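Thread: quick sanity check before group meeting

JM: Hey all, I'm pulling together slides for Thursday and realized we never actually wrote out the predicted structure for the chain we discussed last week. Dropping the sequence here so it's in one place. If anyone has concerns about the input, flag it before I start.
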Amino acid sequence: MKRIYFTITTIIVLLSASNIQCLAENYNHDAVYQKIVKEYTLQEDGSIEYHFYKKLELKTYYSFHRSYGETFIVYNPEFQNLKINKAVTTMADGKKVPVPDNAFNEVLPQNAKNAPAYNHLREMVVTHTGLQKGAIIELDYTITTKAGFYPLLLHREILSKEIPVKEMILRAEVPNNKTLYHQTSRIRTAPEIRETKASKNYTWKFTNLKPQPNDPYLAEPQTYLPVLEFSTGDISKEIANHYKAIIKKSSSAKAKQYFETVSDMLEINQSTDEKKSVKSKIKNIIEYVDQSINHYSIDPLFYGFKPRAVHDIIRSNGATVYEAALLIAEMLKHQGFKSDVIYVFSGDKSKNLLFPEYPLVRIQHDHHTFLLDPFDNQRMNPMIIHRDYTFYSLSGDRVIKNNYPQKENKFDLEMDLQVNDDGSISGKATVELTNGMNPYFSFWLDPEAAVKGLGKKTGLEFSNAEIEANSDKTVIKANVNAGSVQSYGDLKYISLKKMSPYLKKINASRLPEETQGLFDLGMTINEKINTKIKFPEKYKLNSDKRKHMVKSNQGYYLVELKTKRDAIEFERQIIFNQSRYKPDGEYQYARKLILKFNDRKSNQIMFP
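JM (edit): ok, ran it. Output follows.
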């Protein structure tokens, strides 16, 4: 789910980390954290205090010229108060240089600059002084959050950071009448628990933490790195309660007035052919939210996972991803469709350790159920559908388990082509798409645009398409234009373009020879292209057979060419039986298959 499918890792502070518990190799890093302390205190009245301290040693010029010369602290001043307790640099000779007053500057956060509704957010920029190789930065600050902004204390600490950490201390303190649910994954570290008459204090200590790998296409860090999680309750219920209150506001006269105004603007109140009208209304609504409403990439951390009412969203002409989901669902409901917001959570509900991941819009119509990404409304998100997540309907009280089975994600293209007298190549094609490869909502909603989009992804041109689309499988039968015969000196060749709609997203040239993390394809993959090309008599083909196959439990790769007197049969297939590959021989194997599949030579057929 790499895109904006972001994982919300805390409801208290910004994303934070350390790493795997083992000795750190400090010499090849720009900087090293000598110490990090993070303390979370839930008060009796529901307010939360977050205390942060870091002691950072600079190793290179790059570390203070580009990476660590400034610290950025984003917060919401309407509900939070920031206090800088200490900011000082100890130079290599031991001289201490306090950060001067004019080095603390509040600015508008980058993500909020085009989001007027969130222009009240602030980012404190701390410009550290006295920087040089061997200098040590110390920064200590506290953020106090008013009661009610966050529904509970919830935090996920990925035990990994971009540079080594020599010592990390995490503390959580809660009143005695509260329960702190907690667990660690992929590391065995129990907290030290200290009780007083008023509270319970939990302390975790980690030393010599190795830095997080920085390779492309890695899985979400919390899925393969050590993680500490704690919570004081069920966040899904708290979020649902707020949504129910917002939905009530969305039924108000003011909201309905805005709905009617937008409906008139989009001309979706006009009566047309009933079948076309249904699709037209859905299409116009999601296109309105996608194209006319500005998308705000504001971390829900800074508005407490509390979206605004729909009339405020429409009036401001902008929405966060959670607000976009709410707006689409409520506008569809206003037009008579059955629609709601589905929240996706990861974690263990039985342990009250659920973490919000992403909202989806659910549309139920004519025996179809569509789950839409509110910021990419033409498709479902296979990375969400095929993971062990919990779906929570915010309009009801029940938990919807992820009951989407691990079916095969298949792209199957069969082409029967003819080389014409002018050298062009055309014929018939059948495309079969299943599960994660199947954007069936697009084919149901706007078949012509969906077929055109498929042509762009495959490098082909489809026409006169017949489409049978449903959630299990979409089958397309169409005429196809597949390019033309090319010349290179005395040789002629056919270039079968990289007709892979999914793997072309992976830049094979960026794949390192080795990786330290979990390589993530997002889903299992089965892509097959079977092409038969018939030639006119003027082309002389030599009989030739070529076959190259690689096969193991992790995957499969095949390129096979059969040449007859007047025809060529060419088959290419790649299968990944796993969606994730470990950083050992598994990754090297997956990389080998991708490089072979993207090799230009494997897409070309040359002949006299």
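AS: nice. The longest helix spans residues 274-292. Residues 92 and 134 are 5 Å apart (CA to CA).
JM: adding both to the slides.
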